[in-house]
Design goal:
Number of helices: 9
Strand content: 15-25%
Number of domains: 1
Mean pLDDT: 97
Structural class: alpha/beta
Largest sheet: 4 strands, parallel
Radius of gyration: 19 Å
Distance between the termini: 31 Å
Number of strands: 10
Oligomer: single chain
Strand order of the largest sheet: 3-4-5-8
CATH class: Alpha Beta
Length: 253
């Protein structure tokens, strides 16, 4: 199986044996069509958060269709919907819809928030702040997402037309997330449940655009809403391996 890596910066491309590296970006239709010619199965990792990400995704999907790609595997988000509380999940929904409309065979990997990054949500004082209330979130390990993706890409025909909800085996409150981090890391980590006004005020120091502040705050309000609490067994069904808990992710890292 020939592997072609499409990257924005060739100098940062990972060294994968027997792979070819091509340069393009999601918003460059001509370069994308050129580099995608001859590709049968495309693994599309969602672009970096930005105000133009959805347009970039649509441009790249159109390029894939024009280049003759037959199967597109896309990293989406758990609970992607046009009215999702987590604002960035709406981009993923509309990207999925565009992929379906393109006529390309597809598989959607709908990842929940990553367990690996939760400890970085704590400030220098060890406090995770956000309006999550007592809501629960079924965090997923990036390693589990990678294993699902590898399984799908090794036998893509078996996964055409399917969408997988990728979560861990447990749904935790943010207070439980903080307590788990504290236990594993041996340091004080706590959760402070902010009000909406407090959440926006505490993030104002970064002078970010409105869409970014909305994304940051809705990370927590989505948890509070209960939209991210369901536990799925799709990781285990696809890979035959149980998904990792937050504690296991932290101990492995």
């Amino acid at each position: 199986m020939a592997i072609r890596l499409l990257v924005r910066d060739i100098g940062r491309a990972p060294a994968i044996p027997e792979s070819a590296v091509e340069q393009c970006s999601y918003d460059d239709a001509d370069a994308s069509i050129r580099t995608l010619r001859g590709v049968d199965v495309l693994f599309m990792v969602s672009g970096s958060e930005s105000a133009t990400r959805l347009d970039e995704h649509r441009t790249f999907v159109d390029a894939a269709a024009a280049a003759g790609v037959r199967h597109l595997v896309y990293t989406s988000f758990f609970g992607a919907a046009p009215d999702a509380t987590f604002t960035l999940a709406r981009d993923h929904f509309h990207t999925e819809q565009h992929i379906v409309a393109s006529g390309i065979g597809h598989t959607f990997l709908r990842d929940n928030f990553y367990a690996d990054v939760m400890e970085h949500f704590a400030g220098e004082d060890g406090v995770i702040r956000g309006p999550a209330g007592d809501g629960r979130v079924s965090l997923v390990a990036r390693a589990d997402v990678a294993r699902v993706a590898a399984t799908v890409l090794n036998d893509p025909a078996s996964h055409v037309g399917k969408a997988y909800d990728l979560t861990g085996p447990e749904a935790l409150t943010m207070a439980e997330v903080a307590a788990t981090i504290a236990e594993v890391r041996g340091r004080d980590v706590t959760f402070h449940n902010e009000t909406l006004d407090e959440a926006y005020a505490s993030r104002a120091q970064w002078n970010a655009p409105d869409w970014q502040n909305d994304a940051w705050v809705s990370t927590y309000t989505a948890i509070a809403s209960g939209e991210l609490s369901r536990v799925s067994d799709d990781v285990e069904r696809v890979t035959t391996r149980r998904a990792m808990t937050l504690s296991e992710v932290l101990r492995a890292g």
